[in-house]
């Protein structure tokens, strides 16, 4: 029988350190989350390093790792030991010249339940991800695990209702969004409140429109590793929302934290019965959604 209730967690951390230290740190925080009852646990985007996409530098490709190497080995053993599902976002080296922004979904027995490769790749000032990452080619997927059915999207994916919809239509109970998003310090005073508000609003909208739980795991801290630049101030504010967009847990802007909330599948079903958005979709009229623009 499927679990009718299970606890999920997102971990919010400062990850402005070297890979070895970040790995040790994340292992410790996952242990803490599991000790508090979390059964499905997500780390932030690109957990193993500082956010290197602030510049276009070929030396940063050295931060990537092949599939099933360091990150998988460590978190596979940890998931099996603790009996939890762990979402591990990492910089994947697929082959020379092809790299992805990816996430393992590791099941409670340490096996790979699924792999997701980030589909939408941004190219903004100091978020130069197109230089590093090939767009994902695995599509949007719901991953069955021994705790529940989860969908994993990554950061820039969170702005796209199509990504949330296609994942939810496959049965996802929770949409996880490992994230690395923050303010340009020089813009924060003028634009910061609206930028952060839009980020929360769009994901809460995905929760409502699809009747799913949404969990965003962001990083914190000022990462100013390039000389003569202001860096990026990651805004934290990780959160978990319920299927009506209600905030079940929310983190601060500047503290390392674990957020835990319960997924209640009976509640989710009740919400979908009363707000039957899936039933009333006019799929016969949506064909143009696959066009870049309707000219």
UniProtKB/TrEMBL annotation:
Q: Which Pfam families match?
A: CN_hydrolase (PF00795)
List membrane-spanning regions: none
Name the GO terms of the biological process aspect: putrescine biosynthetic process from arginine
Name the Gene Ontology molecular function terms of this record: N-carbamoylputrescine amidase activity
- Domain spans labelled CN hydrolase: 6-265
The yes or no answer to whether the keyword Hydrolase is present is yes
Which UniProt keywords are listed?
Hydrolase
Protein's name in the database: Carbon-nitrogen hydrolase
Q: Which organism is it from?
A: Flavobacterium sandaracinum
The taxonomic lineage of its organism, from the top, reads: Bacteria, Pseudomonadati, Bacteroidota, Flavobacteriia, Flavobacteriales
